[in-house]
Design goal:
It is a single chain. By secondary structure, this protein is of the alpha+beta class. Among the domains are: 6-85; 246-339, no CATH class; 377-430; 436-561, no CATH class. 33% of the residues lie in helices and 20% in strands. The chain contains 15 helices and 18 strands. The protein has helices at 17-28, 37-47, 55-68, 75-85, 125-141, 197-209, 219-226, 270-281, 334-350, 378-387, 392-399, 412-422, 446-451, 468-493, 510-520; strands spanning 102-107, 117-122, 149-155, 158-165, 177-186, 215-217, 246-252, 263-268, 294-295, 303-306, 309-319, 326-331, 373-375, 409-411, 440-441, 457-461, 523-535, 549-561. It has a six-stranded mixed beta sheet with strand order 2-1-5-4-3-6. A hairpin with a 6-residue loop joins β11 and β12. α1 (17-28) packs antiparallel against α4. The radius of gyration is 26 Å and the shape is globular.
Length: 566
């Protein structure tokens, strides 16, 4: 149960779950009559209401949950509904001094059992820092960091703290799993909630790494985002709030004067990058790694010279966009490279000279879950409605859908319910395709390298009236690129058993080879990101409470003849 000091005690009536459901149902059903009391009970249960949560923060989560159920709510109405859930008569922001701002949830038992979770609330990161160190010691005493790694993963207004665990003897794929150890969530609507987090985690890092106990993975990106000197408010400025969409990138660049001649070794957090660096240097035949001699120059761009080979470090930050993300890729300077090298040496001692950590694609908030709304192809929708003998209005009436205006941006729940109601064979046709002006021209492979680890499929639009041989070669290049993507996903997910670990660099040139092939054929390639639905039929059991698809991401490609587009 949550723990409050007398200064932190809530100043309003805390409702029971049943009372919260009743308050929600009473308010929502006035605007959406088909919303039942049982719907309210289910929604309250799934919301996982946080005691003391700011109504503005809760309103955003509530609005999204209603949208998934096909109910469109204005923000002001969601604020009123959220206030009633929290026991208030009207919405307001809790700004009382000493009020809880952070909730720390931990699995303090011997097993990672959700029923064994414990909560404690804190008014600041400084207050939480002491508990983080004490908690880490308890985990170490119980052997709950089996591979000596505590990983940080930031997701919006929440932080997931996990640890990789070794595969069991019965696991034929020999893939490591990840166990959640605890979470930190923000209880107030504060975009700058991570401002004090770097100081708290630096104390935890020293407590773990400097004493040889464990590695704090994910800390480097947090520290690098926090130390950015960008001016606040600039569209492409980087701040600590960008850590959910940032990762390290390690490149090998043998020629300092030709940065485009390098290739990618790894991307993700520090342990993954260190592990991949070592994999890339192991002998293919003996699988033995030579002794590494690493030097960091005092001047110029930060780099590691590893056995006389030059490796540069960067931190890449994604700025989410509708079809193409903004990307800020910055090299790390010599002081940060020195700090990273010192941590690498500490980690090697902790791991006994060889990393046992198995890599996983770093989760970024961008593309990490469904959006609140999607742009749809209205012409396609109208054709489907016409084939079913329906109009927009009669569809809403027949299926009890919220009477939304016919527009090209619709709530995710409305779109998914429409696909299911109309039994559309190819649901991906419902999503609008970006115009050429909304896509990014691929003058190099940097955007594709960013997207590939998070993409599930490749979709393409080719110019009309292509010569048969040219069309065949272009299609072959696209198919090969798509096959490589699927192979990479299979290996990463353990779906393809391998005798030994394959370094990430095996895929380093795939994107550039694909782009170069299109260029040789006389085409300019453009790319964007679009939603992609994959049927779960015959994969997962049918359930009336879930959609019959898994939501993923597709790289959408368009080709134009060189000279036809400027």
């Amino acid at each position: 149960m949550p723990v409050f000091s007398s200064a932190q005690a809530p100043k309003h009536t805390q409702l029971t779950p049943e009372a919260q459901a009743a308050a929600l149902w009473t308010f929502v059903q006035l605007k959406a009559p088909r919303f039942t009391f049982n719907d309210a009970v289910d929604l309250v249960k799934n919301l996982d209401l946080r005691q003391g949560e700011d109504p503005k923060s809760l309103a955003k989560r509530l609005r999204r949950a209603l949208q998934v159920r096909g109910i469109a709510f204005k923000h002001v109405n969601a604020l009123h509904a959220a206030s009633r859930l929290s026991g208030y008569s009207s919405w307001h922001t809790n700004e009382e001094a000493g009020a809880p701002r952070l909730r720390f949830a931990t699995f303090d038992g011997a097993a990672f059992d959700p029923a064994n979770v414990h909560f404690a609330d804190f008014s600041s990161w400084s207050d939480l820092a002491t508990e983080l160190r004490a908690w880490a010691d308890r985990l170490l005493t119980r052997g709950q960091l089996p591979l000596g790694v505590m990983a940080l993963n930031f997701i919006g207004h929440a932080l997931n703290i996990s640890t990789p665990v070794p595969p069991t003897k019965d696991d034929v794929q020999q893939r490591a799993q990840s166990w959640t150890l605890g979470t930190v969530t923000c209880l107030v609507d504060d975009a700058e909630w991570l401002e004090e987090a770097p100081a708290a985690f630096e104390k935890l890092r020293r407590h773990l790494e400097e004493t040889g106990k464990a590695v704090l993975d994910g800390y480097a990106v947090l520290q690098l985002c926090a130390s950015s000197h960008d001016r606040r408010g600039e569209p492409m400025a980087v701040a600590v709030s960008d850590v959910p969409n940032s990762e390290l990138v390690l490149m090998r660049e043998d020629n300092e004067d030709d940065p485009h001649g390098g290739y990618e070794i790894a991307r993700g957090d520090e342990v993954t990058c260190w592990h991949q660096l070592e994999l890339s240097m192991r002998n293919d035949t003996t699988n033995q790694m030579p002794e590494l001699h690493i030097v960091v120059p005092d001047e110029g761009v930060g780099a590691w010279f590893v056995n006389d080979r030059r490796y540069v470090w960067a931190v890449e930050t994604i700025k989410p966009g509708e079809y193409v993300p903004g990307r800020i890729n910055r090299f790390i300077g010599p002081p940060d490279c020195q700090r990273l090298l010192r941590r690498y040496k500490l980690a090697k001692r902790i791991h006994g000279g060889r990393f046992k950590h198995h890599d996983q694609t770093k989760h970024l908030a961008y593309l990490g879950g469904p959006g609140e709304t999607y742009r749809v192809d209205l012409h396609f929708l109208l054709r489907q409605l016409n084939a079913a003998g329906l109009t927009w209005e009669s569809y809403c009436e027949k299926f009890g859908a919220e009477p939304l205006p016919m527009q090209d941006r619709l709530p995710v729940g409305f779109v998914f319910q429409l696909l299911q109601n109309l039994k559309i064979d190819d649901p991906n046709q419902v999503f609008a395709k970006p115009n050429l002006s909304e896509m990014a021209r691929l003058d190099d492979d940097s955007l594709l390298r960013t997207l590939l680890p998070r993409a599930d499929s490749v979709r393409v639009v080719m110019p009309r009236d292509l010569e048969a041989d040219i069309a065949s070669k272009l299609r072959e290049a696209v198919d090969e690129f798509g096959t490589t993507l699927r192979m990479q996903k299979l290996v990463a997910g353990g779906g393809l058993p391998m005798e030994k670990e394959l370094p990430y660099l095996l895929y380093a040139s795939d994107a550039e080879q694909f782009r170069a092939t299109a260029d040789e054929l006389g085409f300019i390639a453009y790319a964007a990101v679009v939603p992609h639905l994959v049927s779960t039929k015959d994969i997962l059991p049918d359930s009336p409470n879930s959609w019959p698809w898994a939501l993923g991401t597709a790289i959408f490609l368009r080709f134009e003849r060189r000279g036809g587009v400027q």
